[in-house]
Amino acid sequence: MPETILKLQDVAIFQNENLILNNVTLEVKKGDFVYVIGKTGSGKSSFMKTLYGDIPLKQGYGSVVDFNLKSLEEKQIPFLRRKLGIVFQDFKLLSDRNINNNLKFVLKATGWTDTSKMDAKIEEVLDKVGMKTKGFKFPHELSGGEQQRIAIARALLNDPELILADEPTGNLDPQTSVEVMRVLQEINESGRTIIMATHDYALILKYPHKTLKCDNSKMFEVIQKAV
C-alpha cells in the first residue's frame, strides 16, 4: 500500500474569520497527481496555503508529510516546508542574482554547507527540468516558461515528499503551459506526489488526473468529462 502523504478529515478553512471551505475530507497517497480547480475566490489558494502552514488549521484534522496541521507551531513551519516543494504562479525568483545563486540561496537557507554538494544538487535539479545550461543567466534573461522551470527545479532541491503547485501555468501562454506541464508529469512519473491548483481546463483534459473542485464552500471530486 502506498503511504499516505496528506490526510484531511472534516476540515474547515478560514481566511481571517471568513469560512472559505467546509467539510473537506481528502486522502492523497504517495505518487498521486491531484488537480484542484474552481473559480477565482473559490478557495484553491486558501487550501494550498493551509497545506504549507500559511493559514492555520482551526477546525478538523489535517496531516501533511507527517506534520499535524492542527497543532503546528510557528517554529515547525520551516521544517514542514523543507519536506514540501512549493511552485507559485509568479515564480518568486530573486532578480539580483543568477539562477545558480538563486538555488544556492535556498540550499543555504535550509542548512546545506558543503559547496561541492550544493553545486552537484543544483546541476541535478536543473538537468531534471531541462535547464542545465541556464545557471549563469539572471531571471530577467529567461522567458516566463524558463523561469517557471527554474521555480520547479527550486522546489525539487530538498527532495520534497509533496509538491504544491499553485497556478504554475497561470502566467504562461498555452504552448509554454504544455511544456511546463510535461516537466511536472515527468516528475510525477518518477514517484513524486503533486497537488496542482489550476484554471487551465485544457491541461486537465490533455493530462487527466484526479480532479477536485472548489465551489460554494465545498470541495468534491469531479469526473473528467464533467469538468
Describe the protein.
Keywords: ATP-binding, Cell cycle, Cell division, Nucleotide-binding. Residues 6-226 form the ABC transporter domain. GO terms for molecular function: ATP binding. It comes from Croceitalea marina. The chain has helices spanning 44-51, 77-82, 99-109, 115-128, 144-156, 174-189, 201-206; strands spanning 4-15, 18-29, 33-37, 59-64, 67-68, 84-87, 162-166, 193-197, 210-215, 218-222. The protein has 227 residues and is of the alpha/beta class. It has a single domain, classed as 3-Layer(aba) Sandwich (Rossmann fold). The strands form 2 sheets. The chain has a 6-stranded mixed β-sheet. A 4-stranded antiparallel β-sheet has the order 2-1-4-5, with helices on one face. A hairpin with a 2-residue loop joins strand 4 (59-64) and strand 5. Helix 4 (115-128) crosses helix 5 (144-156) and helix 5 packs parallel to helix 6 (174-189). The radius of gyration is 17 Å and the shape is globular. 36% of the residues are buried.
